[in-house]
Amino acid sequence: MEENIKSYFETLAKKYENEVSLTTPNIENGNLQQVPDALHQLYKLTSSAKLPFGEIYSIEEVLKQSERSPFKPNWFVFGRDKYFSFWLCSFIEDEEGLSFTYWDHESGNEIDGAVWSDIVSFLEEIQSNYEDYINER
Fold first, then answer.
1. What CATH number is attached to the domain comprising 13?
2. Structural domain of 34
3. Which residue ranges of the chain lie beneath pLDDT 70?
4. Which top-rank group of organisms is this from (predicted)?
5. In angstroms, rounded to a whole number, what is the distance separating the alpha carbons of residues 57 and 44?
6. Which of 52, 94, 114, 117 has the most crowded Cβ, counting Cβ within 10 A?
7. Domains in the chain: how many in total?
8. Helices 2-16 and 119-136 sit at what angle, rounded to 10 degrees?
9. Cα–Cα distance, 67 to 44 (Å, whole number)
10. pLDDT value of position 84
């Protein structure tokens, strides 16, 4: 899985160059134990990331954000797009093996169940939506 994440970011950086910025991993302080297992490989690769379509929060920020309602106790908020949606990972994958979703906090809707099984497929979908939006303008 780590190679898939690394490969995804390398491909993204080639396409978007300076719009992709990863920070050096900072997991020495034991905070990784508080992060859902599905995000461990991501945070072993980078502490945070700026992407053309959003950002991945630092561990310090995700721990703070995830304590807030409506995320706690089921969801871990690890990033956001450039509009209205938070990127979420469940602490425990569902019966179909799904862990990831996004939630538009201005929609007035409750957080739905997870839709993606891994971080790469989730980010690829977010990227695809962003590129469709850019191409339609």
1. 3.40.1580.10
2. 2-136
3. 1-2, 27-30
4. Bacteria
5. 13
6. 114
7. 1
8. 20
9. 22
10. 84
The pLDDT value recorded for residue 29 is 55
Residue 8 buriedness (CB in 10 A; 0-12 / 13-18 / 19+): middle
- Tokens in use for 111? 């957080």
SS3 46: coil
pLDDT of residue 26: 77
Residue-by-residue DSSP string for 5-36: HHHHHHHHHHHHGGG-EEPPP--TTSGGGGS-
Joined tokens for residue 115: 């839709």
Q: What's the confidence (pLDDT) of residue 32? A: 82
Do the beta carbons of residue 95 and residue 110 sit within 8 Å?
no
